Amino acid sequence: MDDTIIAILRSGTPLIYVTLAGVLAQRSGIWHLGLEGLMIIGACAAVLGVVQSGSILVGLGIGIVLCVLASALLWFVIEKLRANPIIAGLGLTGLGLGGTDLAVQAIYGSQASVNAPFGLPRLGPAFGQYGVLSILVVLMPVFVIAVWVLTRRTRWGLQLAASGEHPFAARSVGVNPARMRLIALCLGGVLCALGGAELSMGSLQIFAYGMTAGRGFMAFAAVIFGGGNPLGATGAAFFFAIVGALGIRAQLLFGERVPPDFLLALPYIATVIGVWISGKLRGGAKAAASFGELKDY
Amino acid sequence: MTSKIDMLKAKALSRRTFLKTSAGAALVAGTAGSLALPTRAKAATGLVALVHTQAAGDNGPIDSMIAALKKLSEEKGFPIRTIYAQDSATFPSIYESLADAGAEVIAGTFNEVAEPIKELAPKFPDTKFIQIFGDPFEPVMPNVVTVSYDYYLGCYLSGLFAAKISKTGKIGYIGGVSLPPLNADLNAMKAAAASVGADKSVTGAFAGSFQDPAKGHEIANQMYQDGIDYIQTDSAATDTGIIQAANEADGRMVSAISPEQYKLGPKSVAALVALDFGQSLYNEVEKAIGPDFKAGHLSTGLGTGVVDFVLSPTWVEQGPPDLVAKAKEVWPEIEKARADIIAGTLEVPFNTEL
User: Which NCBIfam families does the UniProt entry name for this protein (chain B) (predicted)?
Assistant: First the structure.
């Protein structure tokens, strides 16, 4: 049982950090499809930073700076150049995937995967089996609660929601929706950097091209599944991690009888069903009508 | 006024006539061209091109092929071009451009380049085409050679070795995606384990991607926790996650694909089912530029220097002493099985069904 919990925590934690970034963006009125790109930038920067400097803090710091800069770029393109947020987000994902590949090629010549000499600090043998979990797994609940408090229990959170849902009303009481979106996206950039670092340095010590393998899009689905609520979205991300772990377990147990492709598709089937149920419960048609539009009136 | 209208009519007529004449001329020219010039024989430059459909920098097949081509080019003194073709829609135009430029040999990687070669090979009879890792063409084209690799034979030896060395008798296999050749690899391991004893089992799983080390790590961890102590990897960059999982506890073994992976797990990467694409390309290009070129299909198996099962020298030095001793003890049996396969006295089933 402990093994299963550890597997779920390890696979769920990167997803949850990125999901929280998606929640912040969604509250500000932006459906963030650049999560995949930010996540891989964070994963790559953490490993390259550690390899180049020998310091985990430098690796994390570089990841955070790059993800915040990329988020600010996304904001500029959406807010100032009036680009469609969905298209701009997908563009950021392309930039992240291509940019990290280019960076690795430029720095290491012909190395597709980069190995770091060490990973994120872990709990250690004192915690028994759970000692393999990284510090970011332990901090994850703190971030979930912090984002929930920030968005649901503070004046800033209300201003952010107003900026996303009723920018005109927000502006009429002196809130600048554009600035709120910038802050939300940049905070999301920090969370994506942490999620990416956990992916590449939490249980592994490696960066490989395309290693996010669609996790950013699953985080986006978790945001929709969770209705934009940090706790709901975290629950959705955990649900996807559980289904993923069960998919592996099912392959090992029933791989002889059930096609492996079907078992591998389980998390994605669960994602589609989850988003469909969420849409039914929360008025999906209404949400879909505003999907991709940046409210600015 | 009338003359002005007539002039305009004449102008219109002349434009219409011109368009009709042009269309007719184009049609005639096109028909004549296709009838009179069915082939565009080129190839006089000595250029050898490699069109690879996976990115360079993989520490594996593509890098080894580029390095081998450069080596042969330096030895024989011919110019080379290496081109990364990512989008399948661009394959025909890349091949055609190279053939038009007079390439003597065009080598392409993997199954996806079969159709462009089939389409262009008849048009450029003086250019030789090599498809690395492809199925046989029916009928054989006189200027095309396709090469396949019996990797499953190496996996059979890996399964045999694992079944003899494993303490638990539980063996794992992790592939990237469930494809027919990878399914055959898994089935070969199962056949080998079954030949050792009914109590030996092989559990297979697929990561769903060749680029997801995190998923590889997760699957490998679950396997090791289930008592599996030897995993054969077959999943490119996903392998690194599997090797890291093996490094997390003593006594865990992995069999990988490339000598580059020895350093990732000096105490865990016990062996390799090696596939040297570079050597294979070197052999085929050398034949193509010389008098030994023979069109058709080449099935490359054990004993060719391309596919083999080898023990890691690093692991022999640094691995757990009891496992290393056991490996050395059973190795003659592996050598005998290899010799039997090469001699044809031991037949390994090629079964792509799961």
Answer: TAT_signal_seq
